[in-house]
Amino acid sequence: MTTRVSRETTTYTLTFNKDQLTDAVNFLSELLSNSTFNETQVEAEKATLYREAISLDDPFAITSNNIHYTSFRDHYLGQPVNGIRENIHNITAEQVHNFHKQFYVGSNITVSASGNVDFNKLSDAVSNSFGKLLSNSPGEVPNSSQPFFTPSLMFQRDDEIANISAAVAFVAPGITHPDWLGMKFLKRVIGQYRVDRDAGAHLNSPELQYNLFHAKLAEYPDIIAHKAFYYSYGDVGLFGNFCFGNEVFHYQYLFLTQALMTDYASRIGPEEVFRARARFFNDLLNRNSSAQSSRKNAIEASYLNRVLTRTEVAQKITNMDPAYINRLVTKWFWDKDIAVTAWGPLHHTMSLAHYNRPYRRSTLGDYGMTWATVV
Questions:
Q1: 50, 89 Cβ separation under 8 angstroms
Q2: Residue ranges making up the domain that contains 268
Q3: pTM (2 decimals)?
Q4: What is the pLDDT of residue 369?
């Protein structure tokens, strides 16, 4: 069994033999509805949670937490998934029990099964096992307000590490919005960049390749890695870019990626759209494990009250052409406020630690960033 925790959902995935369907459903029901939280168990888990909270092993994960915090400073979405490290040792068994009692109710639970499964048998097992749960949360549910985007900057100077990790994010649509699939498609258009793969190490002229981001990023050899990210939640999302590399190109970390992305509002090569569409189709055709399919179906059913078929997704993706990308970027990113975070040896970068007009102009594509290539 595996457990995944995000800012809005927790998924419990159990893999079992097809003859053990009823036993598997009963096990999950017992786990989710009748768990006991004694003080000894809670105390034993705190050390693991604290180590995860203070870990610096993954620059992308740390920057992801930072960009969420500075984007949603007044909402729980801005808090780290692993918890606030200063608060971990203050958690009590009673608090865990109250959280479980309030949120682990019928209206918050979706059961999904994938593989060689008899639907009628699954439905009967779920009704018998989960039918005893309360249908709704008792009392007022905290943190149910609409997240409010707070465009701002957050810089963390750390001179003991060698490279900068930076992210720039825009507010984006959530899972229930019609533009959700469009954002997933745009993420594939931008893709990921690695200097050892997409720059001069293997390409004689990387600036001539048919990828706007890769061609521009290859001009800066100290930008080691880049990736687009899209975090989608029930009623809001975050879309942006992560960069990792040496501080010599600190201006580019803060201004270049959003300038390149908003340039898609006026121009994008059809080859970039075709490449992203082929990548999306390949992802749809990949044979996922039953655990992966079940997890995907549960998330979609929770938010959309239905499951998107591969055929439906493929039809929507087929209709996403360059003009669609122009409209999507114009609607969500052109001349919009942004959230920016940077972590690392920010000796010179700290001079840019005030949200002013250059940050807003960086969302006007090439028009607003005529100096973006200056070092």
A1: yes
A2: 153-368
A3: 0.90
A4: 65
